[in-house]
């Protein structure tokens, strides 16, 4: 009787608790098989970007080769939406003669509903379901002394670290080494979109090399450089985490084994950022309303956001006349990724200064990000728009020009993505004069910062 592993956003064979358990239960008469069920219409409804679907297809290709080399078949199936998963899976179980299905939990509501229905359906059909905790560094639920979920990150982080020290975070042993060179490729699925494969390789070796290189040579300076968008100072591992090509325990392990990390990992800024990922995932579970296009703070639902298509299009296209904002939006369009400081600035710009509904920006990010992750993206947007849990205070409205001067002082990042401004001096590049704009073919600023800021503060004050 086959032990079947259902892969979703955990596209790897290393540090994989579901594979670990399936392998433990397998015998000569009970082999391991794997399945991935594509749900293109569901992904579209969730605004998943073509780029992310492209990377997903490339990771599945790699996974197929890795598994085939180890004698495990990866079944690639498709159904429109999550609703179809239970029948698709049950049929495969019947064909394979499968007794047990293994998978990792996921945090968003739709995914959890899909899993509850599927587990009930399979169990009714006599198939055992083994559900392992979600892909987090600390998989335990982090609760305060009153057994309540945290709404503020700092105390969450304190408790999270305590639990981390009590947990076994050793990456899970799964498969032995194998040579994949003789395994042939599978055809590219119709739902795979284009993405910058030159920037984001999909093979495990490159992904692990990137992780180790960051831990060995960049983690020590991360705290000082992580806000400078022109620097490759962050790990850029997010697309792989979003699709589970790397496991969070593998990151922790690489951190602990690195020269600087061996003594400093527990106090490192990088660990703290990784904890934000767990925090936002847990919020989805404890506060279901945030899964349903609702703000964490119900009072902010009264806000009447502005509808201005000209402003919206300018923001989307990187034509707002604020160089740092436009450079950031073009980084997103051109690479499928955006630096964290710039995600905060562009999100604050749309929601506070253009005063447009943060949900539109949230969807736009998902439609373009290679690392689109519902929990982190929703959390980041709610934080930036001051409508979320432990969000930016409403009177904090980033000044895009001051932020640009502070975090891109020589305009290095702006020059990279706005070549039309490359000839400007280090001072004017943050806010060119009218003549400079004209000669560079760059638009005037679409809003007056001070007036827009004042408006946002007044609206929030009245809530
Ligand atoms: C408006 C907005 C939208 C965002 N949307 C996403 C998204 O769709 N997907 C996504 O993975 N992250 C998102 N983030 C969080 C963060 O910007 C990215 O995780 C980070 O820029 C990825 O780059 P990195 O891998 O180099 O991160 P590093 O700085 O190297 O951090 C390592 C990992 O920690 C996690 N992480 C770091 N910062 C955060 C954070 N603030 N919140 C949650 N997790 C974090 C990520 O998994 C990241 O890959 C968003 C932030 C904002 C403000």
Q: Structural class, judged by helices and strands?
A: alpha/beta
Distinct ligands: flavin-adenine dinucleotide
Outline the biggest β-sheet: 5 strands, parallel
**Using only CA atoms, what is the Rg?**
23 Å
Helix amount, in percent? 40-55%
> Could you say which overall geometry the principal axes of the C-alpha atoms support?
globular
Main sheet: strand order: 3-2-1-4-5
Please explain how this structure is put together.
With 463 residues, this protein is α/β, with parallel strands linked by helices. It folds into three domains: 2-132, HUPs (Rossmann fold); 137-171 and 205-286, Serine Threonine Protein Phosphatase 5, Tetratricopeptide repeat (Alpha Horseshoe); 291-461, Orthogonal Bundle (DNA Cyclobutane Dipyrimidine Photolyase, subunit A, domain 3), CATH 1.10.579.10. The chain contains 21 helices and five strands. It has helices at 17-25, 40-45, 50-68, 85-96, 109-124, 153-166, 204-217, 219-225, 238-242, 248-257, 261-264, 269-286, 309-317, 323-335, 340-353, 358-368, 374-384, 400-407, 412-417, 434-440, 449-461; strands at 2-7, 32-38, 74-78, 98-104, 128-132. Strands 3-2-1-4-5 form a five-stranded parallel sheet, sandwiched between helices. Helix 12 packs across helix 17 (374-384), helix 14 crosses helix 15 (340-353) and helix 16 (358-368) runs antiparallel to helix 17. The structure holds flavin-adenine dinucleotide. Flavin-adenine dinucleotide (FAD) binds at residues 226, 234-238, 241-242, 273-274, 276-277, 280, 340, 343-344, 347, 365, 369, 371-373, 376-377, 379-381, 384.
């Amino acid at each position: 009787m086959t032990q079947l592993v259902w892969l979703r956003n955990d596209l790897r064979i290393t540090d994989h608790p579901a594979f670990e358990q399936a392998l433990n239960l397998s015998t000569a008469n009970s082999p391991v098989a794997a399945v991935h069920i594509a749900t293109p219409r569901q992904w579209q409804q969730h605004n998943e970007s073509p780029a992310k679907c492209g990377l997903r297809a490339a990771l599945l290709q790699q996974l197929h080769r890795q598994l085939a080399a180890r004698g495990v078949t990866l079944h690639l199936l498709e159904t429109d939406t999550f609703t179809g998963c239970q029948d698709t899976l049950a049929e495969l179980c019947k064909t394979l003669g499968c007794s047990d299905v293994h998978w990792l939990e996921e945090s968003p509501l739709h995914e959890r509903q899909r899993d509850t229905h599927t587990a009930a359906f399979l169990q009714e059909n006599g198939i055992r379901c083994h559900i392992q905790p979600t892909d987090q560094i600390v998989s335990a639920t982090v609760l305060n002394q009153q057994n309540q979920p945290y709404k503020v990150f700092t105390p969450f982080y304190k408790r999270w670290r305590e639990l981390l020290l009590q947990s076994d975070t050793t990456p899970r042993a799964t498969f032995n080494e194998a040579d994949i060179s003789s395994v042939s490729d599978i055809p590219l699925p119709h739902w795979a979109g284009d993405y910058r494969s030159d920037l984001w390789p999909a093979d495990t070796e490159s992904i692990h090399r990137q992780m180790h290189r960051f831990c060995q040579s960049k983690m020590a300076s991360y705290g000082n450089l992580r806000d400078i968008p022109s620097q490759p100072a962050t790990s850029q591992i997010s697309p792989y985490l979003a699709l589970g090509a790397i496991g969070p325990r593998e990151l922790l392990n690489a951190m602990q084994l690195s020269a600087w990390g061996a003594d400093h990992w527990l106090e490192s800024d990088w660990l703290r950022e990784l904890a934000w990922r767990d925090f936002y995932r847990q919020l989805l579970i404890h506060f279901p309303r945030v899964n349903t296009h609702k703000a964490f703070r119900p009072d902010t639902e009264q806000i009447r956001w502005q509808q201005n298509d000209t402003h919206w299009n300018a923001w989307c296209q990187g034509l707002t006349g604020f160089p740092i904002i436009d450079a950031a939006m073009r980084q997103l369009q051109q690479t499928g990724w955006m630096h964290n400081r710039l995600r905060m600035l562009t999100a604050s710009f749309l929601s506070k200064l253009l005063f447009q509904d943060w949900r539109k920006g949230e969807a736009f990010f998902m439609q373009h990000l290679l690392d689109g992750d519902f929990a982190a993206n929703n959390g980041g947007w709610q934080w930036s728009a001051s409508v979320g849990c432990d969000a930016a205070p409403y009177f904090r409205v980033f000044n895009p020009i001051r932020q640009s001067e502070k975090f891109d002082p020589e305009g290095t990042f702006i020059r990279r993505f706005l070549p039309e401004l490359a000839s400007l001096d280090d001072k004017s590049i943050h806010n060119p004069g009218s003549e400079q704009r004209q000669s560079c073919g760059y638009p005037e600023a679409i809003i007056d910062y001070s007036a827009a800021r004042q408006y946002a503060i007044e609206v929030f004050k009245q809530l």
